[in-house]
Amino acid sequence: MAVPADILKSLTDLDLLPQGERQKAMLIVADRLAAVAGAEAIELADTEGLADSRLTNPGHWLAHEANISQRRGRRIVSSARLAARFDAIAEGIGEGVLTDEHLTVLKTCLPGNRTSYRSEMFNQCHKQLVDFAREFAYPEFKRLCEAWIGLCEDADPDAKAPEDKDLGIDFSDNLDGTTNIKGLLLTTDAELLKEALTRLAEKAKENYRRDQKNTPTPESTSSGQDVEDDLAVDLSISEYTLRPVIRRGTRYWMARAIGTIATLAAIAPRDGKTPEPLLVVLMDAETMETAKNRWANNDPAIPPDLVFRPGYTCQTLDGKPIHPDDAFRIALNHRLRRCLIDAASLKVDLGRTSRLFTGAARDAVIYRDRHCTIPGCRRPARWCEVDHQQEWQDLGRTTPETGRLYCGQHHQAKTEAERQRRHHARARDQARSDQDNTEPF
Question: What is the C-alpha separation between 120 and 8, in angstroms, rounded?
Fold first, then answer.
């Protein structure tokens, strides 16, 4: 696969162009390269019945064929893809408004394809990002861009809910003792199903570990030969079916839990009481009121400025956006909890009476942060721990204002950094004490 000579000449001359013209030239060159690569891929597919594997990494291919660095090749391809997805970004590149630093931020924040977000307002917001680039330098632009994209991730109020005919589950038998299950569910129903599967999977893993500890080994029992025979049978069955021994992870136990749920649902008495599933939906009061009025008036329209309101919230605890109509439907048949930070009716300020965040104080921090607060980390709340921003040993208080969500990795790093700081402080104080106690000759 050869790059045409005129394109090679354009790549060679890129460094000689000004910033704005270079970005525009990179976009044009990348578009032409994509056209050449696409045409040759079609030709290869027609003649040989194969697709060129080098097209799976166009940046590497571009660097190899054009004799440029791989970093330059990846940057050209990624800039072209970004501009192809969003017209406002293409205009900003053509005008020279978006520099390499701006594009680096946008590549990190913006979705990887056109269908990542269904919100029309999200598709219209990219002109605002270009305006940010015109007005602000890189550090401030990065902060504003992350806040804006975070808001758009949380908000998708104008996404049309799927029609009833689109919802459903299909079962496909693989004729080997397994069945594929594929379907489309409402996010609320899927979260309830995932919650139930997760609970059963965790319980099954605990039982499995306990059984493994209590299982006698061949060396510790008189019936060791029987145990070895059973293991041999299991291995022979595994070899016969051409499958390795199962590594029982969470996905495996969740798959097994589907059968448990079906069994429990089939044998449960009609008048029996079962534990209520837990699904936390975060929704602010104004959005709730808007959804209620829309249900009452049967009006599908959503106020266009709803998503731009800073306090807009309608999502699960993990950050999955939910349509306000679905959230209101859940509220009709479930319990509502009013969450008021620092409200007198909700005791969330534990002061110095408790070191750990528990109860309402912990919930308040989770509902506010919803993911790890370290910049660039989006691990959801279920993987995070609530810790003091000002350490408890430094007279930190147990209040939502001083609490932050940290994922396991960053919480451990924060704890280790605090330990090192205290260790060096003690060593420094000890050295000063020894120096003061030294008697002169």
Answer: 39
Q: 316: domain range?
A: 281-333
**Per-residue pLDDT tens digits for 385-439:** 888 887 777 777 777 778 888 988 888 888 888 888 888 888 888 887 777 666 5
- Contact at 8 Å (CB) between 307 and 157? yes
Q: In a 3-state reduction of DSSP, which class is residue 187?
A: helix
Q: Are residues 230 and 295 in the same domain?
A: no
- Asked if 257 and 304 sit in the same domain, the reply is no
In a domain, 229, yes or no: yes
Number of domains, the chain = 4
Q: How far apart are CA 119 and CA 115, in angstroms?
A: 9
In a domain, 346, yes or no: no
Cα radius of gyration (the chain):
29
Question: Whole-model pTM?
Answer: 0.41
Residue type, 96: G
Exposure of 140 in the CB half-sphere (CA atoms within 13 A): 7
Q: How far apart are alpha carbons 407 and 424 in whole angstroms? A: 26
Structure tokens at 359: 């109860």
Angle between helices 126-135 and 138-154 in degrees, nearest 10: 160
Q: Residue 294's CB: how many other CB atoms inside 10 A?
A: 17
Q: Residues 254, 286: one domain?
A: no
Q: Is residue 178 part of a domain?
A: no
Shared domain for 148 and 14, answered yes or no, is yes
pLDDT tens digit sequence for 338-395: 655 444 444 455 555 566 777 777 877 887 787 888 887 878 887 888 888 877 777 7
